[in-house]
Automatic annotation (TrEMBL):
Pfam families: NPCBM_assoc, PIG-L. One of its GO terms (molecular function) is hydrolase activity, acting on carbon-nitrogen (but not peptide) bonds, in linear amides. This is LmbE family N-acetylglucosaminyl deacetylase. Keywords: Signal. Residues 567-621 form the Alpha-galactosidase NEW3 domain. Residues 1-30 form the signal peptide. InterPro entries: A-galactase_NEW3, Class_I_gatase-like, GlcNAc_PI_deacetylase-related, LmbE-like_dom_sf.
Amino acid sequence: MPFRSLRLLRAALLAALLTQLLSYSATTQAQAPKTYSSSEILLGLKKLNVLGSVLYIAAHPDDENTRLIAYLANGRLLETGYLSCTRGDGGQNLIGPELREQLGVIRTQELLAARRIDGGRQFFTRANDFGFSKTPDETFTIWDKEQVLSDMVWVIRQRRPDVLITRFPPDSRAGHGHHTASAILAAEAFDAAGDPKRFPEQLKYVQPWQPKRLFWNTGSFFVKPGENMEGYLKVDAGAYNPLLGQSYGEIAARSRSQHKSQGFGSAAQRGEALEYLQYVKGDKATSDPFEGIDMSWNRVPGGAAVGKLIDEVIRKYDPGNPSASVTGLLRVKAACEKLPTEAFFWNSDKSDELDELLYACLGLDLSATAQEHTNAPATKVAVTVSALNRSSIPVKLAWIEAPFIEGEFTVMGNTARKPLDELLVDNKVLVKQVSITVPTTQFVSQPYWLREPGTTGMYKIPETVEKFTWPEHPHAVHIVEGREELGRPENLPVNDILFKIEVAGVPLYYTKPLQYKSTDPVEGEKYRPLAVVPPVAVNIGGRAYVFADNQPKTIPVTLRAGKAGVKGSVALTLPQGWKSEPASFTFDLASKDAEQTVQFRVQPGGGAQEGKTELRAVATVDGQTYSRGYQAIEYNHIPTQVLFPEAVAPLVKLDLKRKGQEIGYLMGAGDEVPDALRQIGYTVTLLKPEDLTDQNLRRFDAVVLGVRAYNTVDRLKTLQPTLLRYVENGGNLVVQYVVNRGTVLPQIGPYPLTLSSDRVTVENAAVTFLNPQQPLLNSPNKITAKDFEGWVQEQGLYYPSAWDPKYQTVISSADPGEKAKESAILVAKYGKGNYIYTGLSLFRELPAGVPGAYRILTNMVSLGK
């Protein structure tokens, strides 16, 4: 490629690096190798001939319109991105107990799973989903608005979308402060991206970019009955794609159904499906959202010839023999390399697609699998490298290269190369065994946005990180500097093997993730990333440790070896006035992945203050301290994720009295409330639906239903009479919040109540006691305003909007400017017993160690005793 000056060369290379960095956003590490049908290859060839881009913008995972994304990516063949301001960290979890940062990791991977189905790419800002927000003003007091706007502009300048589309309007119709904020930011980013005076620090890497127009993707959810829709552009996103054998509605249903933690399994839609686009900014369009935009190779200087060559490949494509297209694709590649510097953006972007099409047409399979799924820095792991050519075209594997490979290799800067010069014979697998060592400087595999502490509203991106590039293949970049993390859904790949192959003398480069492969007897072949782990991980058993008296508690600490032969000591760091026996333990872990659990006896001394503090476990190995744990998040619909949370736990000392002893607990969507009840001395029996019999329930002082039980436990529709008989005969039933849609039966209480989405989002909103004599406020603990201090994220959610007079209200509170809500706790006598519904967010407060939450829950389960 000719360049006019060294300055242009440097700028072009930087652009190529950054383009490649974000092009990884469509992929996920440690997935089963992608295979292509001949019809998918043909669709890819057609897409290669379309130079257009669109960016869809909203606030959370699941906000995106998967049908429109599927249509744009596979019907219009555009690069189609979804920019989610947050990772959904503040939501609830339908499939397990993970909340906050752990939930954000799950939902990140669910978005990536959705994009693999609908063909989009995934991007993010640094905004943290701090929970439900009622106004954009509140949102912008917690988010750093300028920083989120900068991130949005960064993605726009990198990906250069022709059109922006928002999911929400910039007003209260959006229904959530984050939703409204995303639309406001999109409109500002539309202007700022093209203004060189805005965020000029980005121009070291990218150029200003002005999208053509901005739309709001409106529809029946936002439009009032009878509203005239004639002024909106209409797009039929329900068409059938014969190459994929599905309509975009069918693709969208599979895509949306990946949001399993939110319970968004969707039915396929077939037939016409109109999407409405309302003009917001930029050039107006009268008939098509991409009106006036040249999306052919003619938009690129010198690109017309490339377009003609691609047309010829498409015309001659033989679905029974895709490898016959290789020669034509190599001609396209040669023509692209002759394009001038001005074509660099699209040339670099389309080169990735072109190389992937060559990979597919040749039937290549290149992989690198480790014998273990974790590895500590400075330790070796055996790796199997395999290469397969499933075509009759001669393919040579010239070499493999990695930044940490060992053996008889040629050192290339900060990488090592193993020359091979092997001919890949049709359908014969070439296998090589190598050994690698992870550098001592490499980070553990913590998601990049969780490496350093952020704020309530913003994640922090490390400013400097390890730098690495492939010497011979500058388009394949690992980590350049902190800025390159921005916008990405997950960590930049660092455990990669670079393959150089040659076809008809033309070099092709492919990076493949180093991953662990196993065979599950039920699930079959499974892949997971090779995780870089610390020499020793430190896990504290349990979440919060609650001391209602001065008696000691046993706190288990588990040491996990990241490599063989780890020796050291572990101790607890405690606040003033607390003590542990013993002061420390020594440990000796002979083998990798070995675990040793030690038991500390901790108790508050005379100087320990009431309230919430924190303990930390710290291991010392060879003079180096380690205080992070090891947590694997495993669900079948996403790759296994490994996190390294800080080894800390809340310590709670409080004045607490309790009544009763035996608690039956029926799980709903998943929470950690049972452990909290055990912490304060109750005996908790986890119940299954089949355990809900009159005889079994009779022995419990209280029965508690977990969060969303009436949304997730289908058998409650038939077991409800049994629960109500338990109450009628003198039992105490506590029902935690239920989402107001998708309940398994229309009424969840003994008397009518109407569930709603009402909530109090300000966690420390002032509370008024409506009935000070109500036993829930007085026995066995006197509840005061202090018990509502120090709450996290929200005070409560899904409060009933109407209820029978037989229910008594207990407290009221309100968000600023709103009418007080009185249904956070509803209690009713029913027969000899008591029924309690509460929307208080106990499921968040208890694991966080909020003292008042323990006292309130204790009064609930003690009622009537």
